[in-house]
Amino acid sequence: MISMIVYFRSNLTLPVSRAVAGAMAAGFAAVTAATAILHLTAVADIITIGTYVNFLIAVNTVVMLVMLNMEYGRAKKENMKERMFFILSWIPLVISLVLEIFEHIVGIPGSDFFIYGLLLSIIAQVVRLVFDLRRQYKEAIRYQQMQKELYEAKVSVMVSQIQPHFMYNALTSIAMMCQIDPDTAQEATITFAKYLRGNMDSLKQTKPVPFEQELEHLKKYLYIEKLRFGKKLNIEYDIQATDFVLPQLSIQPLVENAVKHGVGMKKKGGTVTIAARETETAYEVIISDDGVGFETSAERKDDGRSHVGMENTIRRVKDMCGGEIRIESTVGEGTTATVILPKEGQPNENTVS
Prior knowledge:
This protein has 353 residues and is of the alpha+beta class. 62% of the residues lie in helices and 12% in strands. It folds into 2 domains: 2-143, no CATH class; 162-351, Heat Shock Protein 90 (2-Layer Sandwich), CATH 3.30.565.10.
């Protein structure tokens, strides 16, 4: 019985429930020891005491099942079926103990209700263990598949950010600066190298990164684009919150579209604003521009926008942070993209650096 109480305790999570289960195990151990001593000293017959011990076993089992039921009542619905089976699998043992106690009271000899009830409960636990192992195996296979898909998605994102035309434009701008302003050309070369290094490092990153780290990488990209567009591109920042995490390279596709297909398509250029703020339930990163805009309800076409990068970004934001991306645009006025990251998907404040 002590081993069963310990087994029950391993399925409890609340500190109070675990403490009660520990006290019950210690109490039953004391009762067992006292029963053995009374029997050995011929103070009491073990058969007579056995009725009370069985009653104590039944009470302990019922109490444990009640505590398990209380905890499982707080469980998510998708786990309720599995957990209810765990509770019901011990019902044969409880019934057998009740019958065993009744048998001792009535005085019917030769019954083995406890043995049969215990056997049925153990068989049920073995069946449950087999199903658990099967479920865990499927989850492991699914996790490996998700890791593979995540890696492929990160590769696609990285490749989408290092497109040939971007590298050509960056190197051309740097080459021109070598003649006009060698110091700026040197700084641009170092910045471009750090930008490429950041993209390559993203392949090794399996978890969300601090927003400040993502913002620094984004500034390198915008520095290079500023060399190309010059006065036509104005960058503004409104950063009111930084203590949160998000998937690496998840903001750049939005900024890239704002620069190249927003203000870049406008004759006089325009402004791209990057803002971050905190609400009661989420952190938000907002990328807005006053460029040409587009029709959001129109069928997607091959317009040069980072569709692959956007699709991967939307999926990664959802899978890694439980977030979403909302895009609003008006033709002739501009576009606003909002990345919403729920606080419940964020780590503790002291883990964000």
